[in-house]
């Protein structure tokens, strides 16, 4: 069971709901997280249960970032709106940086999300199970 987070800017929320609905069968076997409104919208459109954090601008991005920093997140789908300035841009950049530092797969658009979910569906994320089994500094 992998830990997967969903985040979507306001103008991308409908796209996120449609995407998660299309792949509900893939996500149903995993532990799901989301920022506030995005999670609520996904739960209204699917039968999935999602642990919701605060809204992104109110700290939800940072809450998910805290899990990333502890290497406790396996995949993030973050549908960003590149044409709209975000008031919490520093939080967004920090989350993206943490994903790079920890090597967490991150999709920021629907095309990349599709590729990652197809890989998840095929079972290509088994390497993440090893990350959880062997913590940094432990002998393998």
State the helicity in percent bands.
40-55%
Q: In percent terms, what proportion of residues is strand? A: 5-15%
Instruction: Output mean pLDDT.
Output: 89
H/E series: EHHEHEHEHEHH
Class from helix and strand fractions? alpha/beta
Fill in the CATH topology: Rossmann fold
The strands making up the biggest β-sheet line up spatially as: 3-2-1-4-5
Give the biggest sheet.
5 strands, parallel
Active site: 61
Family: Belongs to the methylglyoxal synthase family.
Domain MGS-like: 1-140
Function: Catalyzes the formation of methylglyoxal from dihydroxyacetone phosphate.
Structure explained in plain terms:
The protein has 140 residues and is an alpha/beta fold. It has one domain (3-133): Rossmann fold, CATH 3.40.50.1380. It has helices spanning 13-22, 24-27, 36-45, 60-69, 89-102, 110-122, 126-133; strands spanning 3-8, 31-34, 51-52, 75-79, 106-107. A five-stranded parallel sheet has the order 3-2-1-4-5, with helices on both faces. Helix 1 (13-22) crosses helix 3 (36-45) and helix 4 (60-69) packs parallel to helix 5. The longest helix is centred in the C-terminal third of the chain and has 14 residues, at 89-102. Its EC number is 4.2.3.3. Keywords: Lyase. Belongs to the methylglyoxal synthase family. Substrate binds at residues 9, 13, 35-38, 55-56, 88.
């Amino acid at each position: 069971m992998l830990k997967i987070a969903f985040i979507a800017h306001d103008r991308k929320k409908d796209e996120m709901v449609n995407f998660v609905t299309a792949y509900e069968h893939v996500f149903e076997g995993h532990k799901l997280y989301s920022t506030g409104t995005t999670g609520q919208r996904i739960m209204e459109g699917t039968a999935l249960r999602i642990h919701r954090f605060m809204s992104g601008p109110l700290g939800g991005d940072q809450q998910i970032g805290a899990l990333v920093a502890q290497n406790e997140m396996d995949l993030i789908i973050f549908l960003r709106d590149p044409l709209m300035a975000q008031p919490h841009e520093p939080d967004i950049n920090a989350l993206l940086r943490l994903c790079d530092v920890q090597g967490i797969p991150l999709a920021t658009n629907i095309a990349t999300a599709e590729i990652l979910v197809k890989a998840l569906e095929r079972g290509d994320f088994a390497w993440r199970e090893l990350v959880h089994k062997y913590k940094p500094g432990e002998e393998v």
